[in-house]
Amino acid sequence: MLPREDLLKTVENREIAARAIDLAEQAIKTWEVVCTDFLAPPELMEVQQMFGRLTEVHLLAWGGYPQAERVRVAIARADLPLDPSQVAIAALDISGNFLFDPASHRDFLGALLGTGIVREKVGDILVLGERGAQALVVPELVEFLQTSLQQVRSVPVKVQPIDLSELKVREPKKKEMTTVEASLRLDAIASAGFGMSRSKMADLIAAGDVRVNWKEVTQASYALKSGDLVAIRGKGRLEIGDIAVTKKDRYRVHLTRLM
Predict the structure, then answer these.
(1) Alpha-carbon distance 146 to 93, whole Å?
(2) I want to staple 37 with a disulfide (CB 3.0 to 4.6 A). Which of 1, 77, 116, 120 is the partner?
(3) Whole-prediction pTM
(4) pLDDT, tens digit, for every residue of 83-136?
(5) In terms of CATH, what superfamily is 90-166?
């Protein structure tokens, strides 16, 4: 048996982490590869950190394509190989004419959840503009969604399974930059990286819209370090690269913005 209480001590998403421990114990006992439902980035980070302390099992995260934000995690005994083909994920094409009633990511997600399924069964949703969207789901829901999902906003839709190779994934745009700041405060570095005023950034931080390494940070004075990832809802992500101290004791920070 795994040291459950010890593993759960510092975990915020206890229910998800506890389910992952149950799956890990199953994997050890049965010699099978088992999979979690879809995890959001903060949940994935906690599960990876938790299992990083164990030698009995290892993990593989896969969301259907390399840049996927929501992923399922395959868990197996440490002596068994893992590859993405062992992570069961299905892709659906949700097609309709959205020319006169455009639908957002939230609209498609709301329509999917409106059929009665839970969020953990749905991965990423790729919005394709007036043509509809593609959604990643657990395979056991494919037939149900083909019959149950009939409309998004006011638009009738047709749901069909597609191969993962047919996903229309947009490669994220990257912008490299360097900023020189008096401190490594979150509001200072993030305002430079996202190209907005420091006061506007402070407002976003206070509102809980900013995450560092997928955890909500509400203090503008939070000190960033090399390797941190800053994410803002609707505005992309910012990777904190190398940090050097200048002759005037300021910080030269290399940034990569993903849009």
Answers:
(1) 10
(2) 120
(3) 0.83
(4) 999 999 999 999 999 999 999 999 999 999 999 999 999 999 999 999 999 999
(5) RRM (RNA recognition motif) domain (3.30.70.330)
